[in-house]
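Recall that a protein's primary structure is simply its ordered list of amino acids. Everything else, from secondary elements to tertiary packing, is in principle encoded there. The following example makes that idea concrete.
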Amino acid sequence: MEFIDLRTQQVAIKDDLDHRIAKVLAHGQYIMGPEVLELEKLLADYVGVSDCVTVASGTEGLLIALMALGIGPGDEVITSPFTFIATAEAIVLVGATPVFVDVNPLTCNIEPSLIEQHITPATKAIIPVSLYGQPADMREINRIAARHGLPVIEDAAQSFGATYNGGRSCGLTTVGVTSFFPSKPLGCYGDGGAVFTNDDELARAIREIRIHGQSARYVHTRVGVGGRMDTLQCAILLAKWRRFDWELRSRSSIAESYRTRINSEVMGAGELAASEACRPLPGVRILPSVLNCTSVYAQFTILTPERDEAVRQLKLAGIPTAVHYPAPINEQPAYASASSGNEITPVSSWLAKHVLSIPMGPDLSEDDQEAVVASLARLAASPKFVL
């Protein structure tokens, strides 16, 4: 069993994939070829924004977005501590200070009710992360940002294709940034990403920064980076696009199957209640979905005590797992001194000890789903899992 099955997908799109790659090899425009603009228009239309700018990676997209907003030394940026390191990395790379606000125990996304108390005169932006494929509470975050005149950058590296109150992730606020890393719901065969906005001036800045700050060839009006997405990677995404809607439906169906089976065969007593969310509990628990929000299930993540033992037992059964993520960013050695130092994030610390991601993808077979659930049921029945 594979954690994410990319081979089955590749077989399904092989003819279109071969055609798209061959076309790029024939015209030879490996940087900023016609497929780049084709993909940008397609993605902008899908998200429902005026501008999409493809970039070299999701990390590069966050960095460019911060640069375009003029954020730098002396500034503070509020974000989540429970995410991949790239979110904070981009903040530190522009010279700003990340301010970590704890997450909601049910969604693992930043808790809006805690944001305002961390806003200071130095705060210049908020970066909520749409973790595990599900957007944060963007409406409330946008309200808080508007009261304080702050831009919001949605880190949508894991949630491209998801919706929130009818709008698509990446188009929910000032700027949206996503990643096309191979394991993402829409992934290329290398690094890639995109930045989305409805702000024409911001889009122009993003486009210039992406190409070394150029407004015209060899006319450098801004400090920039080499942040372009390769034409070949854009062509690969175009080949994958025809299957994308089906893949999202399949991910949702598999997630619902997991949820039903784990509820009936493993938990036996329903999902984790909000009041219990910060207490270690025996057995296995599911992170719930949220009303008015859809998830693309970039991961299917559960909560379990004795995680190391769970990983070991699942590995013996031939089932791969992953931990997203084993420590909050403010507890990472490189960031303990880079942050404001005033963060108290007990929920993030607790989640980091209990989250476990199990195999997920649009081509995950029913037999594999059954094998995963059966293994989890055996684990949940073990005396080791009673705390």
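The longest helix spans residues 231-267. Confidence is low (pLDDT under 50) at residues 269-282.
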